């Protein structure tokens, strides 16, 4: 059993106080709460990142099977604790997916035959054979998340921890992840998941731990319902299906359909891009003023399209026009909040970061205050939580005041309250006459925000894809 007794975690100030929690083998515990309440820090204390890599003040007892975990370093804890981080790319060491699965086992000096058998066994058990022998950098965000999950499963540890595991997963991938959890639970593993999206756990979790105002409140599965979620401002416990979103403003767009040219405020003409010999994009797109949600399965090309629009994929073919004029350079017209916000943060403080895009101090203060970041102006951007980083990029988008805004999975680190705040900001942007393109798997966001929905489909994807939801 993993157990906290009278445990406190503090940085400049205490973030979690007097924790008394236990985690049993064969149980799934979901840890939730508003962004910045300490969920990721809590996991880092368990695996040893805090205090061995990231400084913090700790007090109290943390034990596993009677052993004091605080006496063990990260390497020693890794013998029985596995973690899938919020951004799986931060834990990859290889360029080939099979090599990545083998990496931790090779470091344990296991025989080659045992490593190969472990990989074969776990990929078969978890239904992840399609992830074998793939170049990691060509995988979609969701496929990278599943690869990270499979890689840590191959370690066959006692404790598995996941930080926002659904952030990049489509509905099919979430179903696969649920199957992984069921199998790990049946094997008697201790499973701890920090997550905002709760609907897919409703029939899986054994207990819910809510971090609120520095304290931990524990609810058994029988007491976890929508009334509890509403009382504490949590995300929905009811699954929202694609059929719930079908409205007049819904359309499907083949990425391999070179139809007649369209007019529009923003015209992406004859876009074409391939990863090696594999084409992922060959189409055109047009957008007018308003809010556009782009949905579609993992790997279908949603993020690739955004990268082409932003000019980040240098070898892509096509032209981009805004109000009839070539969109070049794109940064003069576009503001982007990408899936991995760490690549968009460059300076030593929140204030310096937002000052990159504006010198209007009053506008910067107003944007940071609206997004609850004004008290963090002196913090290093990389010290913020995932949700706080996304909100910083959103504040920068507000003060940059460009006509085109692009978002890639903007709710991956946001709680319900901050998701609703994001929706308010999106509506304000639309009222200001902007065009917003938002890639997401978050149907709760789409249902609450409204707007036009475009589903990307590939040329090999069956038309009955919509029935999967």
TrEMBL record:
Top-level taxon in the UniProt lineage: Bacteria
UniProt-listed Pfam families: ABC_tran
- rRNA-binding as a keyword of this entry, yes or no, is no
GO MF entries: ATP binding
Report keywords, A-Z: ATP-binding, Cell membrane, Membrane, Nucleotide-binding, Repeat, Translocase, Transport
Question: Which residue range or ranges hold the ABC transporter domain?
Answer: 2-238, 266-469
Q: How does it sit in the membrane?
A: Peripheral membrane protein
**Record's subcellular location:** Cell membrane
UniProt KW Cell cycle keyword = no
Which family, according to UniProt? Belongs to the ABC transporter superfamily.
Protein's recorded name: ABC transporter ATP-binding protein
């Amino acid at each position: 059993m993993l157990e906290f007794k009278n445990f406190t975690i503090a940085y400049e100030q205490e973030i979690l106080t007097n924790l008394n929690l236990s985690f049993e083998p064969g149980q799934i515990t979901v840890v939730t709460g508003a962004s910045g309440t300490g969920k990721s820090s809590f996991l880092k204390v368990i695996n040893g990142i805090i205090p061995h890599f990231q400084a913090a003040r700790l007090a109290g007892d943390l034990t596993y099977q009677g052993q004091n975990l605080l006496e063990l370093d990260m390497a020693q804890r890794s013998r029985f604790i596995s973690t899938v981080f919020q951004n799986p790319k931060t834990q990859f060491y290889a360029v080939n997916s099979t090599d990545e699965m083998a990496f931790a086992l090779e470091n344990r000096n296991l025989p080659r035959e045992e490593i190969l058998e472990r990989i074969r066994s776990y990929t078969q058990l978890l239904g992840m054979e399609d992830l074998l022998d793939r170049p990691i950098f060509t995988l979609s965000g969701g496929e990278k998340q599943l690869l990270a999950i499979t890689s840590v499963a191959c370690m066959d540890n006692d404790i598995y921890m996941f930080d926002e595991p659904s952030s990049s997963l489509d509905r099919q991938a979430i179903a696969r992840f649920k199957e992984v959890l069921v199998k790990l639970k049946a094997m008697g593993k201790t499973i701890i998941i920090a997550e905002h999206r709760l609907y897919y756990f409703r029939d899986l979790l054994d207990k819910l731990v809510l971090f609120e105002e520095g304290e931990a409140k524990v609810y058994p599965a029988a007491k976890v319902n929508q009334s509890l979620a509403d009382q504490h401002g949590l995300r929905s416990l009811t699954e929202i299906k694609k059929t719930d979103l079908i409205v007049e403003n819904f359309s499907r767009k083949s990425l391999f359909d070179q139809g007649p040219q369209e007019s529009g405020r923003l015209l992406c003409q004859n876009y074409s891009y391939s990863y090696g010999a594999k084409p992922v994009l060959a189409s055109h797109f047009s957008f007018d003023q308003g809010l556009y949600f782009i949905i579609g399965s993992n790997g279908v090309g949603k993020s690739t399209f955004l990268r082409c629009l932003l000019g980040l994929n240098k070898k892509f073919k096509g032209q981009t026009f805004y109000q009839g004029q070539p969109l070049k350079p794109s940064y003069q017209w576009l503001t982007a909040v990408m899936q991995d916000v760490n690549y968009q943060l460059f300076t030593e403080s929140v204030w310096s970061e937002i000052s990159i895009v504006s010198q209007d101090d009053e506008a910067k203060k107003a944007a940071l205050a609206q997004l609850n970041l004004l008290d963090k102006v002196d913090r290093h951007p990389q010290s913020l939580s995932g949700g706080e980083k996304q909100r910083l990029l959103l504040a920068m988008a507000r003060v940059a005041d460009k006509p085109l805004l692009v978002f890639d999975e903007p709710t991956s680190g946001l709680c319900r309250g901050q998701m609703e705040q994001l929706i308010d900001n999106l509506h304000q942007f639309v009222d200001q006459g902007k065009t917003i393109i938002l890639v997401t798997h978050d149907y709760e966001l789409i249902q609450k925000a409204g707007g036009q929905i475009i589903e990307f489909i590939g040329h090999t994807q069956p038309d009955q894809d919509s029935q999967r939801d």
